[in-house]
Design brief:
One of its GO terms (molecular function) is Arp2/3 complex binding. It comes from Gigaspora margarita. One of its GO terms (biological process) is endocytosis. This protein is mostly helical and about 400 residues long. The protein is about 60% helix and about 5% strand. The chain has 19 helices and 4 strands. The strands form 2 sheets. A two-stranded antiparallel sheet has the order 1-2. Strands 3-4 form a two-stranded antiparallel sheet. Strand 1 and strand 2 form a beta hairpin. Helix 3 packs across helix 5, helix 14 packs parallel to helix 16 and helix 18 packs antiparallel against helix 19. The longest helix is centred in the first third of the chain and has 22 residues.
């Protein structure tokens, strides 16, 4: 057995030679592959501090496994074995190696992230949650656990039982981590925690959509919203950094997750004033910029912006300040087709969402007749609903989306 071997290494060259030997011995059959992946984890865990001191060395070590003939031939066996080992081992050095292997393997093949919540390994998400919550702040196993959990949630819908383990106490802990790491020179961990919370918020939205209680208070179903409602004024960094990410024009998937959180915050009475007014000004600036600049093929993302815009200008403190009222009105007028200088002919969905926004009291005094294209708009109850029929968000990895309370949430 590999794990019974006692290694005596004198230099890094011997380390890499021995590593290659371990991977080579696993090429024969499934049993040798299982033994070799165990030996690989044990070997790297033991010598990582001595011979894997740089990021490039770590990356090379992990990709030596993923690019090996053994992995290419027996990847399913190796991943199955590694996931099982992740749920049964407690040594942190070992777990750090295991989690990095699984993370990089999943980034190369996202289907692997789905295997981590299979019926055989139902404890994996719980283990990740425990490492995030219980380890010292900034511990490297805590950090890779955050990244793994984010990827798992991003690529699939997790079960109600799995979602229920993310309670108020867990989100309080995440928000405290965000506050405590705000001054770190390397902001990667801070923003990784926020990305995880954004993804879990989407999971709560999916869970509500799957029940018959869509009209219930969102606080009953969304632990993140409950905690945010109780921490208004005390989680400044989270709000600031969400808006900073939004303004930074991050990847479309993260942009969509942020929009979904904003929608939930702006449509839940207890959280409508969670963000500071200055942050909301930045949000308006981003909306104006993005709605003008989004390419034609990003119609679904444009619709999502418009769905969030209505509660933003209607339910938050902006309804009193009416920041950039005329610029927003001009933008909506352009989007509606009144002006064709910037936009091509709009779809019926875009038209309907624009009309909904223009009914807001936000525009009183500059749109007295509430007219679009010469036709007077009379508000009705049905017309105020955010109709999502015929719209599909394609920026997520799945491309299959379902409407959730007026928003679009990707369903796997």
């Amino acid at each position: 057995m590999h794990d019974e071997i006692i290694y005596h290494l004198e230099n890094s060259e011997q380390f890499w030679i021995e590593l290659d030997d371990i991977l080579t011995q696993g090429q024969q059959n499934q049993d040798t592959a299982r033994r070799s992946i165990d030996a690989y984890v044990n070997f790297v865990s033991k010598f990582q501090d001595e011979y894997l001191e740089t990021d490039s060395q770590l990356t090379q070590c992990f990709y030596n496994l993923l690019n090996s003939s053994m992995y290419q031939t027996f990847s399913n066996i190796i991943i199955e074995r590694t996931i099982h080992r992740a749920t049964t081992r407690k040594e942190l050095k070992e777990l750090w190696v295991i989690f990095n292997v699984l993370y990089l393997a999943g980034k190369n093949n996202p289907a692997i992230f789905k295997l981590m919540v299979s019926s055989q390994e139902h404890d994996f998400i719980l283990k990740l949650k425990e490492y995030i919550k219980d380890l010292d702040e900034g511990h490297r196993v805590q950090q890779i656990s955050v990244n793994l959990l984010f990827e798992i949630c991003r690529c699939q819908r997790i079960s109600q039982n799995e979602l229920s383990i993310f309670d108020d106490q867990f989100f309080d802990h995440l928000l405290n981590l965000v506050e405590n790491t705000r001054d770190e020179e390397d902001e990667t961990f801070n923003y990784s925690i926020i990305r995880l919370m954004l993804s879990l918020n989407e999971q709560f939205m999916l869970a509500v959509h799957g029940t018959s209680n869509d009209e219930d208070n969102d606080l009953d179903h969304n632990a993140l919203l409950r905690v945010l409602s109780a921490r208004i004024g005390t989680s400044k960094t989270f709000g600031e950094n969400v808006i900073f990410m939004f303004n930074r024009a991050v990847e479309p998937q993260i942009q969509m997750l942020i929009l979904k959180l904003l929608y939930e915050v702006f449509t839940t009475p207890e959280t409508t004033e969670y963000f500071y007014t200055n942050d909301l000004h930045v949000v308006i600036d981003v909306f104006i910029r993005e709605l003008y600049d989004l390419p034609e093929e990003s119609e679904a993302l444009r619709h999502t912006y418009l769905r969030v815009l209505y509660p933003l200008i209607t339910n938050t403190q902006l309804c009193q300040h009416r920041y950039k009222q005329r610029q927003i009105y001009s933008l909506l007028s352009d989007l509606s087709g009144v002006s064709t200088e910037h936009f091509k002919p709009v779809t019926r969905t875009t038209q309907r969402l624009v009309e909904t926004c223009l009914r807001s009291e936000y525009f009183e005094g500059i749109a007295p007749d509430k007219c679009i294209n010469g036709m007077k708009i009379m508000p009705t109850l049905n017309s105020m609903m955010f109709d999502t029929s015929g719209s599909t968000v394609t920026v997520t990895s799945s491309g299959n989306d379902v409407p959730v309370q007026g928003m679009l949430v990707h369903g796997i």
